[in-house]
Amino acid sequence: MSEHALDRANPAAGRPVRLYTPPASLGGRLWSWRYLILRRVCQLGVLLMFFGTAHWGWSVAGAPLLTGNLSASEFAGLIPMTDPFAALQILLTRHMLATEALLGVGIVLAFYALVGGRVFCAWVCPVNMVTDLAGWLQARLGLANVLHLNRNLRYYGLALALVLSALTGLAAFEWVSPIAMLHRELIFGVGMGLTGVAGIFLFDLLVLKHGWCGHLCPLGAFYALLGRTAQLRVRFDARTCTRCGECIRFCPEPQVLKLDQAAAAGMVASGECTNCLRCVPICPEGSLSFDLRALIPRHNAQPLKPD
């Protein structure tokens, strides 16, 4: 790409490139960690509601607060919630779902289709806390990846889970899901189920950063397909971006930050984006923000194309 083409597509190209510098004050650091803190509050809050209902009898208006698990649950005795991926596997086993479960599928599908499918991965899934810790430790210890995998492997895992469900008559991924294992052990007691989660931690730490969530998890693949319709998006202002690359360095799914496409769309449009918002507070130019799709103007910058 010529310098002229870059300048035309990116008005900020001539500005000095700044890198992210962590704030010196505690208040500044807390502000820069605000989305991480909110994510942990959300993830732990969901687990606490399950735990409190199971062990302390938490209720609302006389009904249990949150019963079940992350595959099928009920809130306040009124709102059923069913994981669509789990439901699809069950249907492929040629078993019928209760009307309440089908209603729960519709509620979850509608919610994640609007908010963003992979919001589940960053804001609800407990395994995310494990893999984030592994990624943080890998960076602190200076460990390098020893294996490279295609991120599309998770889609093959998704297809395999569906095929095996149809062939075996069992919901294949639900039987081996580390998400279900971790949830079950945290809510009902520590046991051998944590072995699989420990394996994911070691794999992400010693073999491949974000290996499970970013490359292998079929549930993440399912929600990535659903996330294409999401209305909550990371907005991208190409006019102020200097292409410093800090967002890509911090992002657990860096392939979603294709800045030429984001410049044309005015946002990160990929369904694989988890809306974790790690990129937003570390952008030195404030070029990234959270917004509704309807409020984001398209074509606020021309896509980067070779001359």
List strands and helices in order, with pairings.
Elements lengths: L2 H7 L16 H7 L1 H23 L2 E2 L2 E2 L1 E3 L3 E4 L3 E4 L1 H9 L6 H17 L3 H5 L3 H15 L11 H16 L3 H5 L1 H11 L5 H14 L3 H6 L1 H9 L5 E5 L9 H5 L8 H7 L13 H4 L5 E5 L15
Helix pairs in contact: 3-10, 4-8, 7-11, 8-13, 10-11
- Beta strands, count: 7
Q: How many separate domains make up the residues?
A: 3
Strand content: 5-15%
Radius of gyration: 21 Å
- Mean pLDDT metric: 89
Specify the biggest β-sheet. 3 strands, antiparallel
Low-confidence stretches are 1-9, 300-307
Distance between the termini: 6 Å
Fraction of helical residues: 40-55%
Q: Count of helices?
A: 16
Estimated structural class: mainly alpha
Q: Biggest sheet, strands in spatial order?
A: 3-4-5
| SSE pattern, N- to C-terminal | HHHEEEEEHHHHHHHHHHEHHHE
